[in-house]
């Protein structure tokens, strides 16, 4: 008789909500979220992004309102991406280091309104500023050159730091850019400006809606495979992370998110440093498309996915679902 009952019943701990709460290994809080926001020109402007249902570009005043909303929701950091007007895009992306570009105006306005109540993360790469949509400078053959691009990215990063950015996030995948940016920040009087490197950034098919949002999608010819990583590689991601840490990165990012949980886990296990995931635009759009198609409940789908990032070892997640998730978590 006794032998016909299991010794251990894992279901026992799952029987009640209080017990599930007690046994929960992973906790998601609003403090785990970074909210990416798209900046556009004008005043009082909200432009919905068709391929990102529920996400809009906002003019600087709207960005300030979103930043205040983030503070109220307990979201500690926003990430800014500009939709540069077409006439300000050029082959060399020089608008990236204009002190009065959209990004800098948004940084200053948020800083004025929110002080140090919110962190401001800024993306370093030339794609929102170039007329060709690539992240760096091109040679005659159309190849994105490394070292000359790094020199320009340094100017871009310094420009953002001067405007008041807290976290510089190079997403360009050039070699050696973290060291160059760190040196420039130190020498430029910004020792406390952090670097979160997009260390393992893959040449992914999931960035399409983002490129619509910043207006680079229609301009881009070819792909970014000569600098972004092959989705087949994980050992190489560890090398990217190792170099970026040695070059002075404070934290590292894996991007996209959910299809790369193994990479997040391996980075966390190997280096024990703060790891962030970017749940990218295509991932967001797939959830929204799924909800529209009746696949499941939006809130449940969103929370399950965000919790998975924490379980895999993330310190935090960049996600367009940040305000929804924070609202749910705040009850
Ligand atoms: C810029 C950049 C991209 C994303 C973040 N920074 C696009 C790209 O590399 O083409 C994608 C983010 C998203 O899809 O949500 N280099």
From TrEMBL:
Keywords: Heme biosynthesis, Lyase, Porphyrin biosynthesis. GO terms for molecular function: porphobilinogen synthase activity. It catalyses: 2 5-aminolevulinate = porphobilinogen + 2 H2O + H(+). SMART domains: ALAD. Its EC number is 4.2.1.24. InterPro entries: ALAD, ALAD_AS, Aldolase_TIM. It holds the Pfam family ALAD. Belongs to the ALAD family. PROSITE patterns: D_ALA_DEHYDRATASE (PS00169). Homooctamer. Pathway: Porphyrin-containing compound metabolism; protoporphyrin-IX biosynthesis; coproporphyrinogen-III from 5-aminolevulinate: step 1/4. It comes from the Bacteria. This is Delta-aminolevulinic acid dehydratase.
